[in-house]
Structure formats: C-alpha cells, structure tokens
Amino acid sequence: MIAQFLVFSQERERDRLDREKRRLGRLEANAMDVDGEVADEDLPSYTSIEAPPSLLPPKHYCDITGLEAPYTDPATGLRYHDKSVYDIIKSLGAGAAKEYLAARGVNSIVK
Hints:
Helices cover 43% and strands 4% of the residues. The relative contact order is 0.08. It has 3 helices and 2 strands; from the N terminus they run αββαα. The chain is rod-shaped, with a radius of gyration of 31 Å. The protein has helices at residues 2-29, 83-91, 94-104; strands spanning 71-72, 79-80. A two-stranded antiparallel ribbon has the order 1-2.
C-alpha cells in the first residue's frame, strides 16, 4: 500500500514538473530581451506599429481652466470653456493675455 502511494506521488510530481517546464517554455517564447523589445522583430508591439496621423481634428483646451474649449476670443486669441471664463478673459490686460498665449506656445500680436 505504501509502495503504491509512493509511485502515485512520484507520478504526480513528474506531471507537475512537466507542466512547469511547458509553462516556462511558453514564457521564454514570449520573453522580452533586456531593452524591452520583443525577441522576434516581426511581431508587432506598441512601440513598433507605424500609424498614420489621426483623422480627427485636434482638441483645443481652455487657456485659463484647462477644460475643453469650444470657443476662441477674437480680440486676444485665447481659448475659453464657457461664459464665466470669457468674462475673466475680458477683464485681463494685454500683458496677461500675452503670457497665457506664450504658455500655450503661440506668439501672436494682441490688439
């Protein structure tokens, strides 16, 4: 009876080791090298897929709040989110408007 139990547990251990070897083999097949690139260069990854530019228009954000800005003030060129932000823009001086535009990276002449 004990000999039968030892044979059974040895078989279970052998099966477990076989499953572990197969699992490690699959992991090694999908393994990445040190640089984080896929070992097989033909496989696409997030860093290797070439994509064309987006067909969607770029989003514009409010220069004051950072929210989406559907409106642009024609006098200063600042983008704004809603009427309350527009009131703030109207109260700004020309120097402050230029600073907001410079922060966005636009060098335009404010009237």
